[in-house]
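Let us work through a complete example step by step.
Step 1: write down the sequence.
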Amino acid sequence: MLVYPSAIDLSSSHLRFLTRLLAEHRRRLGTRWRRLPAPRQALLVLAHLRCGDTYTRLAAAFDIGLATVYRYIREAVDLLATAAPTLQQAMERAEAKAYVILDGTLLPIDRIAADRPFYSGKHKKHGMNVQVLADPFGRLLWASAALPGAVHDLMAARTHGIIDALAQADLPCWADKGYQGAGGTVRVPFRGKHRNLSAGQQAVNVAHASIRAVGEQAMATLKTWRLLRKLRCSTTRITHLVQAVLTLHLDPA
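Step 2: predict the structure and record it as tokens.
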């Protein structure tokens, strides 16, 4: 097998953060020896999450077995997921913001036509529904647990308690037409075709769209972690992967 050097488009602060997390975990376990030191394990995990490198490729690059790669990645992802902020913590952080932007995204997964619960009619593909909160500048604040792709955005938001949390914090929120009927502090555009709306309603919808468009940057932030562009793991692990990515994005220092 041929091996070549590569690069990960992350700063060294991400490596230091994950290395510190792994080193503290090893001290708690009393681990005396590992096949890879903490910095190398951190690098392996970042290559998997950021670049989407497969277990086979990582095993060859780091000269370790496939089982070891699996254990190292699972260990690190679980640690990162545990450190991810809760919705309540995100609300406390967002209280200083003028408003937040709520949107849902579909993370594509490798499934067959028989797996109907994971099929999104909106996107015409199988995937997992993840709800995302962004600040007025499009910066990612919080990402939810993953639900099957067939779940509607409004149902997902209610399931995660996002609508109630926003109302309790009295925090204005901009969302698209998929959240019609959410109530609380969630603001959605007027329904209907643009030409059938009054001039005032058209102006409101245009302003609403310009505000909400900024939230797409938060979605793009998630998709820069290439593993999330096409997930081939068990659907039970996707929430942990999303939460791990969220932790690395919010706490790289």
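Step 3: interpret the result. The two ends are 36 Å apart (CA to CA).
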